[in-house]
Design a protein that fits this description.
Helices cover 79% and strands 0% of the residues. By secondary structure, the protein is mainly α.
Length: 427
Amino acid sequence: MTMAKATRAPAAMFDACCTRQAGMARPGTVGFWSAVGVLGVAAVAGTVPIPLYVVYQQAFGFSMLGLAVIFAGFPIGLAAALVCLGCTSDRMGRRIVLLAALVLAVVSAIIFLSASSTWWLLAARFVSGVAVGVITPAAAAAIAELEPHRDLHRASMVTAVVTVGALGAGPLVAGLLAQYGGSPRTLPWQLYLGVLAVAALMMLAVPETVGDRTSGVAGIRPRLIHLPPDVRRPFTEAITTAVVGFGTLGFFSSLVPSLVKASLHRPNHALGGAVVFVLYAAAVAGQFAGKRLGRSRSIPSGLVITAVGLAVVVAAFATTTLWLLVVGAVVCGLGVGLAVMGGLALVNEVCPPGHRAEILSAFFVVTYISAAIPVVLSAVMADHGGSVAAASMVAGLIGLLIVITLVLRLQQRGPERLPAPGPPPRT
């Protein structure tokens, strides 16, 4: 099968599948936006602790390496859930899987509220990662299946924008509550529990999109992720781009709040969260720009812009200049938004409907693990050369990965270009 056919066939299969499967819900506006809301609530969990790490570090006295271990608990739990349970909603249905994962999210928030040591934080992050790992592919698949016009490109854009926007809202709100709310270790999680309750109510409006469902133990049996042969080449292209984007997000999310306090001498929880929010807000803007550019141009443009932004961030810490850090956050965010939008759009285009959650699981496994790698590297390097030197080295490694990705992309694609994404044909 040619590359062009590989990108067109899943869209046609998706449209036919919606017509063929008995008991499967038709696309609708209310269900679509409800699924979007559930995905956004889940994504927030990944970044709410970011401005609180400084608070926990003062309370429990862990090192930068301890911070890395806590931070890594989330992607480890998420990756385990995606690998073992990511395709469960393809068999059991979207609704029951999403509801069960929301219960896990409640458990993680309660553990955060009760945390009295570093181990509690690690457990809370791990459970939170499992919850998000189950919710993300199920909600993303439901969004694609419930899109009112069956436009997979629009579904990809909404999924990417809401995910990144929610990731940005988490540190902003948590930072404001930590700085001005009076109870930095409890108030953010109390608010998040209320948001989870709203998400549970929103699930009432999400119709089931899987017609032939399996119940009982057979439905939750772990199964390793399998990529169909026709999907592997475009998936590889998409995933290398997303690794750069999520690696940059992980680099910012874990290090910037601490560096704002230590290197820029501004001990304000809200400020650290706000800088991270600027990054994610710019990423949302980059995703909208990516829709106008088209996937074939947004991916290389995003990679180059991200590299420029990382250089600005390194200069900001070298000169202890806050405004330069904000500029770097904006530039990095725009680049990440373009790159991630293009990668997710490509994945959604080539997903066969019966394997949609499974393939999206594979995509998110790699991307979220890549977000943890810069954190661990920075922690190890910080023990030898200091936080600023560690941040500079990690930024340099991400920049090197960008160069390698661009070179491989040029070698693999040559003069050939995939068709620009558009709405799938109707049957």
